[in-house]
Design goal:
The structure is a single chain. This protein is mainly beta and 202 residues long. It has two helices and 17 strands. Strands 3-9-7-5-1-4-8 form a seven-stranded mixed beta sheet. Strands 15-13-10-12-16 form a five-stranded mixed beta sheet. The chain has a three-stranded antiparallel beta sheet with strand order 11-17-14, with no helix packed on it. The protein starts with 20 loop residues before the first strand and ends with a strand.
Length: 202
């Protein structure tokens, strides 16, 4: 004989919602943390492997588009490369299809911030001819991409020049010649005007 009996169950009916378990391949997004020198910025990042295959409820994975890593900590304020293994971070109910692959190698590349500026610089003539030379124009306008610390010095134009070489084989008369740009390391030419210098030899 049972010592008790069921008189009433509340609620009288239960609703069970079941969701399919599916797998999905998503990119791994690396993260870093720490104090970075304000003149530097992140240039590139990557992970190995680049993707992870995850498993979980279909309704949850429908809106799950990436797997994040735990942040790698900077050990210096002026880094060039930060690299190392780190854990993958997953929410509850989501797991890796291959649990043994719960780490990724993250790699970050940092570099100096740059700024595009336009300068007017002199034309430096390197003559290998006994002929008298007249050049026009005597300055050129350059647009360059330079590291922020160099731009901040406000004397970048003193460190850049348009160098024009006059060869010994040039004959008297008018010549439209190309020039080359002399600039500090890390400075890149984007455009120049004019592209040629007019030289009159006599």
């Amino acid at each position: 004989t049972r010592p008790f009996s069921v008189v009433e169950v509340t609620p009288p009916r239960l609703t069970i919602v079941a969701d399919r378990i599916v797998t999905k391949e998503v990119p791994i997004i690396p993260h870093w943390g720490g104090a970075l020198n304000p003149d530097y910025e992140l240039i590139h990042n990557a992970t190995a492997p680049a993707n992870a295959t995850i498993r979980g409820p279909q309704q949850l994975l429908t809106h799950f588009d990436q797997v994040d890593t735990r942040p790698l900590a900077l050990t210096t304020t002026i880094p060039s490369v930060l690299s190392g293994p780190t854990d993958l971070v997953l929410p509850n109910e989501v797991e890796l299809l291959h649990p043994e692959s719960n780490k990724a190698v993250a790699r970050f590349t940092f570099g100096l911030k740059t700024k595009d500026i336009t300068l007017t610089v002199p034309v430096e003539v390197n003559a290998h001819t006994p002929l008298k030379a007249r050049i026009k124009p005597s300055t050129v306008k350059l647009t360059v991409r330079a590291p922020v610390p160099l731009v901040r010095e406000k004397k970048l134009s003193d460190k850049i020049a348009a160098q024009l070489t006059l060869g010994s084989d040039l004959e008297p008369g008018r010549h439209d010649l190309l020039y080359r740009i002399k600039a500090p390391e890390g400075v890149y030419l984007l455009s120049s005007s004019p592209e040629r210098i007019t030289v009159t030899l006599q």
